[in-house]
Amino acid sequence: MPNIIRLIAGIAMFVGAIALFIFGFWPWGILAVILSLLVLVTFFFNENMLLAQWFLRKDNMPKAELFLKRISNYEKQLIKIQHGYYNLLIGLIESRRAPMQSEKYFKKALILGLHMDHNIALAKLSLAGIAMAKRNKREATMYIAEAKKADKNKLLADQIKQMKDQLVQMDKQQQVRYR
């Protein structure tokens, strides 16, 4: 359902709830307020995005992809704030299938904007992994440093440490090759 229709339906339901309160139908008014708030919340948080995030947390990639594919044109169906998160979720799903092709989604997510620091750190850490797979040590080091800087709550500290260790292993492998 387009966002403008959600907004109009939510406001109409809220006005109807106020009318129910005025005419003395309190239980129905309370129910109408709850339903109108639910409709208004889906204006800001698309239900397909919420379900895709939930299935990603449950590590059910096919269902998460199914809900993301229900969003046919994300520029029209999502508000501008969610565009970056949509690309981040697509990149996470794509990184399981074809890691090198997920790079464009992570970069686009960073360009469009992610508002939570740990999501920025996740995108940069994923880009660091892709750069390591391409044997681009300088770019990987840069992305790891940026991810560490963005991870203020230390949610990805273990993953950042593992990436640094893998980077050191990559150096050792290159030194062995040159001998």
Quaternary state reads single chain
Mean pLDDT: 89
Question: What is the count of DSSP helices, taking H or I runs of 4+ residues?
Answer: 10
Poorly predicted segments: none
Query: Approximately what portion of the residues adopt beta-strand conformation?
Result: under 5%
Helix content bin: over 70%
What class, by secondary structure content? mainly alpha
Distance between the ends: 62 Å
How many strand segments?
0
Largest sheet: none
Shape: elongated
Radius of gyration: 22 Å
Series of secondary-structure elements, N-terminal to C-terminal: HHHHHHHHHH
Tell me what the structure shows.
By secondary structure, the chain is mainly α. Helix content is 79%, strand content 0%. It contains ten helices and no strands. The protein has helices at 3-22, 26-44, 47-57, 61-69, 74-77, 83-97, 103-112, 117-133, 137-150, 157-178. The longest helix has 22 residues, at 157-178. The chain is elongated, with a radius of gyration of 22 Å.
Features:
about 180 residues, mainly alpha, 10 helices
List the helices and strands and how they pair.
Elements (H helix, E strand, L loop, with lengths): L2 H20 L3 H19 L2 H11 L3 H9 L4 H4 L5 H15 L5 H10 L4 H17 L3 H14 L6 H22 L1
Helix pairs in contact: 1-2, 3-4, 4-6, 6-7, 7-8, 8-9, 8-10, 9-10
Would you kindly provide a brief summary of this structure?
The chain contains ten helices and no strands. It has 179 residues and is mainly α.
